[in-house]
Amino acid sequence: MAWLSITSVLLLSIICTSSSMAERVLVRTNQSTSTAYILASCRRARYPSLCFKCLSSMARRGTTIQTPHQLAQAALAVALQRAVRTRDYMVNVSRELDAKRPKVHDYQAIRDCTDQLNDGVYQMSQSIIELRRITQRQPPAVGRDFFFLMSNVETWVSTTITDAMMCVEQFPGRRTGKVKATIKGKVLNVAMTASNALYLFHSYASKYAAARGMHMP
After folding, report:
1. Is residue 216 domain-resident?
2. Number of structural domains, the chain?
3. Are 39 and 52 in contact (CB under 8 A)?
4. CA distances from 180 to 86, 99, 109 (A)
5. Which CATH number covers residue 121?
6. Among 73-87, 99-113, 163-177, which range has the highest average pLDDT?
């Protein structure tokens, strides 16, 4: 009986170890497949290096990105995350400048940028919700319903890009202070990630429409 008990424990240990190894292999395979798909999909994005860097990072953290829908969803999520982080940074900068009684022009420019980024956060959030409506609707959105939802996403993301670039333009020239340079860099990154998201969403929308016999406007 003791021998059988030891044998059973050993067999159970081997099975558990094999299962754990299989899971790790599956995860690595999934990440590798996602990374290859992201690399191929980002090549024609406006900012391909940034596109691959952001999305492959999500894949390494366990997000599966192997379809046009998953790619568009991940890209919009990245753009929203960048917008939220930059908006929060701007809010903190505004508070610090308010305590120091800054120059009126600088303070107002930063406040305007904060408002624009706050709008961007809302617009990117809405675009993600609208993307879900395309696929979660039963039956799936087609015809006018699909093009209405598609137009909403493209409008919101495009507006986020426009607002971000308007913010950047409020700090002209290369010779700027550290805070202004940081703001410009962060806000420009928002515009770039949103631009990539717009491209990947449009790519997804084109394939979605083609698969259902719809012609893109």
Report:
1. no
2. 1
3. yes
4. 13, 17, 10
5. 1.20.140.40
6. 73-87
